[in-house]
Amino acid sequence: MRAISVRNGKGDADALFVDSNVPDPILGPRKILVKIHSFGLNRMDIMQREDRYPYPLLPESGNIIGVEFSGIVEGKGDDCSDGFSLGDQVFGLAYGGAYAERIVVSEKMLMHLPSNLSFLEAAGAPETFFTAIQAIFLVGDLQPGQTVLIHAGASGVGQSAIQLAKVGGASKIFTTAGSQEKCDLCKSLGADTAVNYRTREDFAEVIERETNGRGVDLIVDLVGRNYFHQNMRSAAMDSRMVIVAAMSGSKVDDFDIRSLINKRIWLMATTLRTRDAEYQGRVRDTFLEKVMPHLVSGEIRVTVDKVYSWNEVSEAHKRLESNVNAGKIICRVD
């Protein structure tokens, strides 16, 4: 089959190319073969392309980049349930291998495509919403009436988290983003206050002012080092902070553990790709319960920033690296 490969095993965006000589995936028990229509781009794809992915990849990950996709069921392995049939339109999450014509995944990681969601939109939903489900509900334990701060609000995960916090009953949602356009997008998704960090406005001061000094109950952080001290200032007593990524770096200067103790802050971190299939299956079930009805009704949406042919995957990666996108970048398999 054809798939996206990296020349010499690692490199910049221009090292990506459509490889016509890639072995077909092998269909095993309780696995589903999907002919891919589209796949979504994520920052982990850049790190894998550069051979600097920070977590150990599971054997199921393989060498082909990509973890989220949409397509059509083309085959079923032994012992599969009756949940999926040949020809079904589906979308799902994988440990790797989505930048390809075909993929084999556990049926636990697959979902039926609702009629109001396109293949392109669906390809950008699983990774971001599954990650946001962890941060908001499974790890962050958001309760109705609580306040939330979500960083990188215009990113795929950020947009998903804003919408989940909204339907989860958050009383006020704060977010940060890098332009007025991105801030407006965050507000359209449910954020009450969006701080444009490029104006050098201090989000900690905004939160202190708008919460009368109380702070927020839950912080979802994708930025890391650059925001850590401001996060400590923004946290309420007995609050929770969930670290999902560290885009600005992972080493914090002058960190005083007393800042956690004084406010009794619960500091947590979570990943998704390194979880086993059983756990990811539980996240999928939570998605079907808490997100899918709102996707079907239109209350929750997937924002697609730009669609590329997979022949233009290098340009798609460059756009993701430039951080100008507001929403998901999708590649269509031609």
Give a short summary of the structure.
The chain is built from 11 helices and 15 strands. The chain has helices at residues 43-49, 119-122, 126-138, 156-167, 180-189, 203-210, 228-234, 258-263, 277-290, 292-297, 313-322, and strands at residues 3-6, 16-19, 31-40, 68-76, 89-93, 102-106, 110-112, 147-150, 172-177, 193-196, 216-221, 235-243, 266-269, 304-309, 328-332.
Work out the count of structural domains.
Answer: 2
Alpha-carbon distance between the termini?
13 Å
Q: Look at the helices and sheets and give the structural class.
A: alpha/beta
Query: What is the global morphology?
Result: globular
CATH fold node name of the largest domain: Quinone Oxidoreductase, Chain A, domain 1
The level 1 CATH classification of the largest domain is: Alpha Beta
Number of helices, where a helix is a run of at least 4 consecutive DSSP H or I residues: 11
Helix content: 25-40%
Strand residue percentage: 25-35%
Mean pLDDT: 94
How does this structure look, described?
It holds the Pfam family ADH_N. GO terms for molecular function: NADPH binding; oxidoreductase activity, acting on NAD(P)H. This is Quinone oxidoreductase. Keywords: NADP, Oxidoreductase. Residues 11-331 form the Enoyl reductase (ER) domain. Strand 14, helix 11 and strand 15 form a beta-alpha-beta unit. The protein folds into two domains: 3-125 and 302-332, Alpha-Beta Complex (Quinone Oxidoreductase, Chain A, domain 1), CATH 3.90.180.10; 129-269, Rossmann fold (3-Layer(aba) Sandwich). It has helices at residues 43-49, 119-122, 126-138, 156-167, 180-189, 203-210, 228-234, 258-263, 277-290, 292-297, 313-322; strands at 3-6, 16-19, 31-40, 68-76, 89-93, 102-106, 110-112, 147-150, 172-177, 193-196, 216-221, 235-243, 266-269, 304-309, 328-332. Helices cover 29% and strands 25% of the residues. The chain starts with a strand and ends with a strand. The strands form three sheets. Strands 3, 4, 5, 6, 7, 14 and 15 form a seven-stranded mixed sheet that branches. The longest helix is centred in the C-terminal third of the chain and has 14 residues, at 277-290. 46% of the residues are buried. The protein has 334 residues and is α/β, with parallel strands linked by helices. It is built from eleven helices and 15 strands.
